[in-house]
Amino acid sequence: MPANVSPASPLSASARPQLVLELQADTAYLPVAAAAAENAAQVYGLDRGGALRLALAVEEFFAYLCRHAGREEPIRLTLAHGGTFASADFRFRAGEVSLRALNFAASVDLSSMDADNGDEAELGLLVAGRTTDRCGLTRSGPDVFHLNAEVDREYPEAEPISTPQHLAAPLRLEPQPAAGALRHAALLAAGRYPARLRPSSFSRPERFADMVAWGQYQALLALDAAGRPAGLICWRASGRRAVVFSGPYCFDPALAVETARLLTEGFLSRVARTEALCAFSERPTADLPRGWFENLGSLTLHGAPADAENGEGPEQSEGVDQPAYYRHLREDAGAAIWAHPDLFPFLRREYDRLAFSRDLLPAEPTDHTRLAAHSLLATSLDRLRGLAVLRPLLDGQDFAANLRAHVEAIQAQGVGDILLHLDLSEPWQGAQAPALAACGFAPRLVLPHAGASDILVCQHVPGHS
Amino acid sequence: MCPAIAELVPDYIRAFEAYTPSRPDPVLMRQYGVDHLHRLNNNENALGPPADARAVIEAFEPPRSAIYPSGDCYALRLALSERFGKDPERFLVGNGSCEVIASVIKAFCEKGDNIITADKTFAVYEWVAEFSGFEARLIPLSNWGFDPEAMLAAMDARTKILFVCNPNNPTGTWWDKGTMERFLRGVAGRAIVVIDEAYCEYVDDEAFPNGMELMERHPNVVVFRTFSKMYALAGLRVGYVCGQRDVVDYIRRTHIVYSVNSLGQPAAAAALADDAGHILATRRMVAEAKELLLPAFDALGLKYVSGAGNFVMVETPASDSLIYRQLMRRGVMVRTMTGFRFPNWIRVSLVQLPAMRDFLAAFGEVLQAVSTGPA
């Protein structure tokens, strides 16, 4: 393709190598699943330790599913090469499933463990969830679930480049930067921006370049007149309809305004005709040009304890306001959302301020007698940023207690910033406002179109347990 | 286990986002709490159809709705034949020009082929190619217009179609006769050249090339025209393609018959019958709108692009999607340009002066609001 031709659909990716097995829900196949995972993980670039971790997760997941998955169809195990990680995905049917052991805060009373009542199997899931780098549960149909686990490849850390850059205009965009240029740019960004404002992979630049090569990140590079890196912006898909961006990173302060505008306009042009409906800031820098994004509000983040060692300064203990920026890539067609009436004043104020047309539908908590015993919350932890994000997956009678247990467990890990995302397309999620308030969560931001509908971001108030 | 439905879908469909049209005006008005809506988003001709077409529409008898239309738009093709002095078999009529875009791509492209067009132009060429599994090579605009040299440089043995939007939507730029002639000589018959002349009736300039003439010297030229813009029949969806007879014969093989309705066909034919006054009146309306808007944009210090066509594109100091929502709250609907890869620009249709004045008043309020707001 000639150099001046733009790809029409930058989010389309070629198929990744994968191995698919269909297994009867029978523990006789446990060694098959585990051996396949270990071997595939090594083929996909994991070292022996990483491969064993994935194999352990597969073994434990499969043992659990043998007990709980529907018997009418085999379980499908997909082992895939993710570029910088290897993944295992179980697709299964389960009419009634108790996956509470996937909760981050789940614990099992070992003294009462009894293989006959299922505790042994639940302990397996707990082990699996904690030995992988990421794991999650999703639901793709009325009784179709996916259990997914990922283990990352190891990459060497590199020294950031903090030498001042003196670059020359005019600048131009490099829409498809080579791996070497990406590694160089990542280290330049690591040398100029604090850890909380850049992806952790910038400190492991080979990992960042691989993430771009495999489509986990998309990146645009600005080059100066001599072809030297002048700036970088990168983004990734967040769900099916949103992208989140980090940057723009500008390497010469004298050219920062021009660099930031070039990168921002290039980024928006690239995502404009893709499946993405909107763009959110993930790690916005102060170089983000004014007038290109809407300010959704801000979160007060305290960061990880280690940030002080990274030059974050003492203000971190007081908390730093991190603004959230947004841009809709289409014309808003309006929407209806579900929320508990307690949330209406906040939501009305925010929707009015942002000029979003929304019908607010009242959602009340479901009668306890109609709920399953246990709820399920997904947790993602970013230890570098000292940030945890909770997402409700399944409602249950123990929702409030489960949420409180999560907060305590996350705080015990030394992570102080806890967010909870409610998808307001789900009445049962919108109805959780009283439980959230009782647990110390306050509504902070509305993220339009970030989920199936809008997402309400609630933040745990420090000091409240 | 049965495969997930998504696993049955080709990658190029999974990666494609369906276009979401605007909701009906009454729904939008309710959502945004307004009692009126100026439609300045689709470049519709606010004067309405020419008198003869209007008469045909008013005389349409409901019982005719029970009868299938002419499957190949027989009478309309005769009218086009008479108007342009060409064999009626050289015309193929579709349900708007979007349908004929799909027909042309289906007729000439197979797996591994590509089409070439601009990155910032009417999106449907690119979309149809992409969701049909063909590569769309997108050439950056040069000085707001199509770049002929870069388009030629992007051609290879698998290039089947080059789409030239002349005048270009949304910039209004156009190639003159010399540029078009040099480009066609450069293509040298190696691929089909589609000249989309959806807005050609808005151009009153001797230097503007007429695709209907070009195709007689360049048999690989295919021209698209529409009754949606100048002729104000957008609601009836009538567009057509004209080319050499053998070219049109191939396109016809992929084209759905009976796709143009019984009201649209005679209305379009009538629109051609006596259109001179209608075209003059429309051009006058567009000129008056420009005389009002462009100095106002200058006074506001806003950059704009105003070429041929019944629209103007203006850069905004805030996100175009935010400007859209704020204008909607004031009863004005414009087109955001991020989807055209012009982030922070809006496109405004040029209509009668009262609506233009309303737009300017609302736009001024919105600019004030966003300049003092948190964005």
Give structural notes.
The complex is a heterodimer of chains A (465) and B (375). The longest helix of chain A has 21 residues, at 48-68. Chain A has three domains: 18-152, Histidine kinase-like ATPase, C-terminal domain (Heat Shock Protein 90, 2-Layer Sandwich), CATH 3.30.565.10; 172-292, Gcn5-related N-acetyltransferase (GNAT) (Aminopeptidase, 3-Layer(aba) Sandwich), CATH 3.40.630; 335-460, Aminopeptidase (3-Layer(aba) Sandwich). Chain A has helices spanning 30-43, 48-68, 119-131, 179-192, 205-213, 256-271, 344-354, 399-412, 427-430, 433-438, and strands at residues 18-23, 75-81, 85-93, 134-139, 144-152, 172-174, 218-223, 229-238, 242-250, 278-284, 294-301, 320-328, 335-339, 358-362, 376-382, 387-394, 417-423, 441-447, 455-460. A seven-stranded mixed β-sheet of chain A has the order 6-7-8-9-10-12-11, with helices on both faces. The model of chain A is unreliable at 1-14, 108-118 and 307-315 (pLDDT under 50). Chain A has ten helices and 19 strands. Chain A has 465 residues and is α+β, with helices and mostly antiparallel strands. A seven-stranded mixed β-sheet of chain B has the order 2-8-7-6-5-3-4, sandwiched between helices. In chain B, strands 1-11-12-10-9 form a five-stranded mixed β-sheet. In chain B, helix 3 (51-58) runs antiparallel to helix 11, helix 5 crosses helix 10 (245-253) and helix 12 (276-300) packs parallel to helix 14. The longest helix of chain B has 25 residues, at 276-300. Classes of the chains: A alpha+beta (465), B alpha/beta (375). At the A-B interface, helix 6 of A face helix 2, helix 6, strand 4 and helix 13 of B.
